[in-house]
Amino acid sequence: xxxxxxxxxxxxxxxxxxxxxxxxxxxxxxxxxxxxxxxxxxxxxxxxxxxxxxxxxxxxxxxxxxxxxxxxxxxxxxxxxxxxxxxxxxxxxxxxxxxxxxxxxxxxxxxxxxxxxxxxxxxxxxxxxxxxxxxxxxxxxxxxxxxx
Length: 148
Ligand code: HEM
Description:
CATH topology: Four Helix Bundle (Hemerythrin (Met), subunit A)
CATH architecture: Up-down Bundle
Bound molecules: protoporphyrin IX containing FE
Distance between the termini: 71 Å
Structural class: mainly alpha
Largest sheet: none
Number of domains: 1
Radius of gyration: 25 Å
Number of helices: 5
Shape: elongated
CATH class: Mainly Alpha
């Protein structure tokens, strides 16, 4: 009887250990996925930011060229990644996700139009749309970023 009891307790202890170590693994996995996503988001923002600075600098003299084309392409790809970030703040708030993605989508649409204007050599249109993009970004930041 005592033996059976000991055996039973050992079994329960083993099951508990296995369950705990499994759930720990899950937590570690979830955390590293979260870190990975956040790193990716940070990298995308940095890419967008430095490309946009370079383009805005060229806007002053309208000196657009191959490098401008490359910068706008980089921005589009980075913005698409930033658009699909799934931070915890957002994940549970559908209205916020819709609002955030709409604004990001508007920014990306503008970037695509800028690319085409660059290709066609419509420099004045490029300048106008860079300013419009700047307004979309400022508006997005004042709504979604804590400090701006
Ligand atoms: C050309 C487009 C954009 C550029 C260049 C840009 C640039 C930046 C920069 C420089 C930061 C600060 C990063 C830091 O704190 O180290 C940032 C953060 C942020 N931006 Fe933008 N942004 C763009 C578009 C947008 C749009 C359209 C939205 C809103 C829909 C947005 C929402 C945010 C948010 C929420 C953060 C804070 C992210 C965080 O700290 O986790 N951005 N962005």
